Amino acid sequence: MLNVEYGIGSKTFKSEDYLGNIESTLTAFYPDAAGTLKLYIAPVDRKEKDGEHFLSATLIFPHPSEKDKDTHIRRKGAFDNMFDTFKQVIKAQIKQLSCEHAYITMTDGFGTPYRDGTGRCKHCELETRNVIPADNAKPFYLINTTFNGAYVAQFDWPENIRVSAGGTSIPSGKAFFEAYPTVRGIGTFIRGASTTIPEAEKIAFEKYNRYLSCKSHDWERTVNGMHRTDGCATCKHCGMFSSKALPPETLCMVCNAPTKQTWLDGHICTRHYFDLPIQTRLNQELSEGWKDDVNGMARGRDAEFDWVHEEKQFLLESRLHEHFYEKLGEEKYDIHRDYIQSIGFRFTTNIRMHLFKLGVWDNFNEYHDTSMNNPGIQAFFAYLSEQSPAIIEHMSGTSKEDGIDWSLVPGKYKGADV
Ligand SMILES: [Zn+2]
Ligand SMILES: [Zn+2]
Ligand SMILES: [Zn+2]
């Protein structure tokens, strides 16, 4: 049985029957096909929303050769000819389920070999891990891109950093490669842009080497031609960017300590921010958020500003921030605020999905009890407390991974099973 869904970010067609029609047509033709077929539909040229569209169809199913990871079969085609693409995907699945595999080293779309032991069957293209000797001598970065499939980083980036990359569906478009390495203790952001991802990566890696070989950084508050008061700066010699190289020029309205956190018409330090009653913080943050929405700033959501949802989300995240502020103290909290923010997002998403059975992007509503009276919420915070030592160890750099399963995949969350 096939289950047809839209992939995240796909252009969706509002008709209720749309996916159902595809599903019943495919089931009639291929009664033995099984798995989830994810459709990604987007304009070929992003600026031409009404122009030609392309379709990417990915069939996701558990293959007996690959025990704990789903197998993905992905094909691209024209939106107008979608059943042709579906046929290719389903035929490939039939072949993979009956093949006697012969594995060769897997390569990405640019011919770069995987070094993690993943092989690809030369007959049916099935990808399987642990079938080729792995090369663990240097870090292996595998990046999933929307338009260019999987990309293996080609340069010797340091271990355990965040990297991302992307291309476009049109040959004249811009590809990018981004990395967030640490250069002699200072975190930075590097972006390379060019016509292909490998060229963009080369540009980014050249920048990284320039930063490494700069003997002594000389910071100035001019970033991209603009004077920054928030502590962001670039090095006059090598161009390296840092958001924390210099103290902010703006001062706390209570104690005059340098801080970049805005509050009313001025600024406030972390300690004095948390000293404010939670209701005061809530009212202020929500009215700021609402103003952004009214001014048409991107909020990452299509929906209108939803007060009920935002209030519940803020109270949960704020409880989590206070938890880490108390555990870490002001200085460390300020250093790790962005990471704590990302934990807050994953935490509340897990609560939405696993406690209230909502979708990734569904909002809380008035019926969802997110207060500490709810035993489910208590269990989530108990899980957070239990995991805090591991998270803090991760922040202090003694552990590479935070060790927490913050996965957004349903069923994977290990805490608070209510
Ligand atoms: Zn095979
Ligand atoms: Zn420098
Ligand atoms: Zn202060």
Description:
With 418 residues, this protein is α+β, with helices and mostly antiparallel strands. It folds into three domains: 2-98, Double Stranded RNA Binding Domain; 154-241, no CATH class; 247-412, no CATH class. The protein contains nine helices and 21 strands. The chain has helices at residues 18-29, 82-98, 197-213, 270-275, 278-294, 307-328, 330-335, 337-355, 375-395, and strands spanning 2-6, 35-43, 53-61, 71-78, 103-105, 119-121, 127-128, 142-145, 149-152, 162-166, 175-180, 182-183, 186-187, 190-194, 219-220, 222-223, 226-227, 233-235, 241-242, 262-263, 266-267. The strands form eight sheets. A four-stranded mixed sheet has the order 1-2-3-4, covered by helices on one side. It has a three-stranded antiparallel sheet with strand order 5-6-7, with no helix packed on it. Helix 5 (278-294) crosses helix 6, helix 6 crosses helix 9 (375-395) and helix 8 packs antiparallel against helix 9. The chain is globular and about 70 Å long. The protein starts with a strand and ends in a 23-residue tail after the last helix. The model is unreliable at 407-418 (pLDDT under 50). The structure holds zinc ion (ZN) (3 copies).
